[in-house]
Amino acid sequence: MTAPNNNDKEHNPKERASPALTTFQNWFKFEKFPFTKYIWASKMFPSRSQQDLITGLRYSLEVRGISVAIGPPGVGKSITLRRFKEELNTQEFHVFYLWNMRNSPQGFLRSLCRVFQLNPSVYVADMFDALSAHLFTLEGHLGKHPVIIFDDCDYLSRDVIEYLRLLTNFEMDSVERFSIVLCGTEMLQAHLKEPGNLAFRQRVTYSQALKPFTVEDTRAYINYHLQRVDAPTELFTDGAVKLIFQYSRGYPRVINQVAIQSLIQAAIFKKDIVDEHLIKRHVQPNLLTDFSDDGSKQRET
Length: 301
Description:
Structural class: alpha/beta
Shape: elongated
Order of helices and strands: HHEHEHHEHEHHEHHHH
Number of helices: 12
Radius of gyration: 24 Å
CATH topology of the largest domain: Rossmann fold
Mean pLDDT: 85
Number of domains: 2
Largest sheet: 5 strands, parallel
Helix content: 40-55%
Oligomer: single chain
């Protein structure tokens, strides 16, 4: 049997590269890949709606209390929260971030205990008392205002929401020791509107819905990602941009999907630009997306 040749790329994993990725990147001469989710929040493209939410959350910290950010899946809630977090003055605020929230009081309080490095108890009442005492002194201990961000809050139970309310109830509801930001979809919004959550809802000082991109946001977003990889902005024709907006309905996550698939199909068929014809013929039939308009025309301006 012939010994493998170490100079043969087929047998040398250090030299072997993915032909598909190499061809795709070289075809467009990208320095790096555009339209990926692996982007620093500080480098994100902020739409007007995202900027408004960040500004509103920042202003709400001056009032303190509870804020709620609502938005459908794929609209950019998490990266907007990360941008909000990164822009806060670290000399004034200390941020704690929790995601994938537990919907039982015991699971929720245990998660909070771990975040604040407290020993979880088997008893809900003991964990609540320990957390309440810790949060009462936390601002003085840190020397800055604590901000707790709860992401993915759609399945918070009524009991958990009530515990959240009770944790904010200091000195007969006369002082705010920390601020809370809850984030979720319209499911969270509907849940908070239930009669049983009235007491919590009345304590919310600021709430805002994050909206999908307009067609102008979409055009600027695509150009922004192309510029980041030193690609010409005319790589996508105006007709292609409008079609991407129509298919994505202005949701950044879906814009990324359609744009990446369009680039891949363009590379497969050796096209230098992405136009309407390419998207309709080679991209649209393969997308796992509902292509109904669903109000996108109302967001064009």
